[in-house]
Amino acid sequence: MLTNRQSFNRMMNKNAVSTIDNTILMQAADWFSILQSGDVSKDEEDLWLEWLTANTLHQQAWVQVEQVSGSFQKLKNRPDSYAARKLLTQKEHKQSSTSIIQNLFIFCLLCIVGGFGWLQFTPQQIIYSEKNFQSAIGDTQTITLSDGTIVVLNTNTQIRTIYSEKLRRIVLTSGEIMVSSAPDNIQPARPLVVDTDNGRLTPIGTRFNVRHIDQTTELNVFEGAVRIQPNHTNSMAIVMSGRQGRFDKQQIFDSNLEADNSRQSWTRGILLADNLPLCEFVSELNRYRQSTIICSPDISHFKLVGAYPLTDTEQILDAVESSLPIRFWQVNEKIWRVDMRR
């Protein structure tokens, strides 16, 4: 692992001059703490390598972190580092000694790289917030959270956001969301998680989609990676970019299927059908309608290909009728049917 880091350091252009944002430095510090913990899985090593190679600034930040780590060992014996250790010990007296050392290292990183000086650190104010959001049937809603994370709610979706001193939580109560995660704007950085009835999802610099389907949760990752942890088991899986995972409270069913691109087209107001069976298409369309369409089993063999604008579902029905020998008809105010055309 050290050999990998050294090889990436040699790849850097030592004459380049770049401004590295503190959020990137904090990400580098977090990865350094994880890799030095002595309990690193192969998946975590792969995630670190993916983060390191994603951006030149990440590589430059890593070099600075390694430089600071050497200074950190000397600083532990300096008299003026006592105040920092005392501050962290009072604030995190319930943490293990390993966690305290990691936090102190991050504190040293900010002081050295940011040029703040050892006794000039002022903790940022931690504000607890809890909010509820809900979208109506047929509508979507885009929310920008306090840290810059963007959450798009699909039709008939409900979430709760709970931001505390320790954690940034998005609780998906029902429906479907697309999340574009942002680095935390409070230091030390708090993890971002998405909780569902079935378990917890922990992203690393990602854009991903989460959806309730029956008694399961479906995850599609389009950037970065997301860790799945079901509620009632110790198993876990990391889903990489371009892949899909599905799980319930007890187990992970799939964690390496190809991502479903239709799970991001809805954010653009498009219902995407890629050789989709007609009855499955109707089931998806029902999510955006006040009335329910019942699909007759004798037409389930028809398949659809195309992109259908969700602004008007009645126009979608007309378009599908014109391309297939079927008809949609209204039974009552709440029920429609689709059958073979007679």
Explain how this protein is built:
This protein has helices spanning 2-11, 22-35, 42-53, 56-75, 82-91, 97-114, 262-265, 278-286, 313-323, and strands spanning 129-134, 141-144, 150-153, 158-163, 168-174, 176-180, 192-195, 199-213, 216-230, 237-240, 243-247, 252-258, 270-277, 292-295, 303-309, 326-330, 335-340. The protein is built from 9 helices and 17 strands. The termini are far apart. By secondary structure, the protein is of the alpha+beta class. α2 (22-35) packs across α4. Strands 1, 2, 3, 4, 5, 6, 7, 8, 9, 10, 11 and 12 form a 12-stranded mixed sheet that branches. A 3-stranded mixed sheet has the order 14-17-16.
Could you name the ranges where pLDDT drops below 50 across 5 or more consecutive residues?
1-18, 71-101, 110-124
- Global structural class: alpha+beta
Roughly how many Å is the radius of gyration?
Answer: 25 Å
Q: What's the total count of β strands?
A: 17
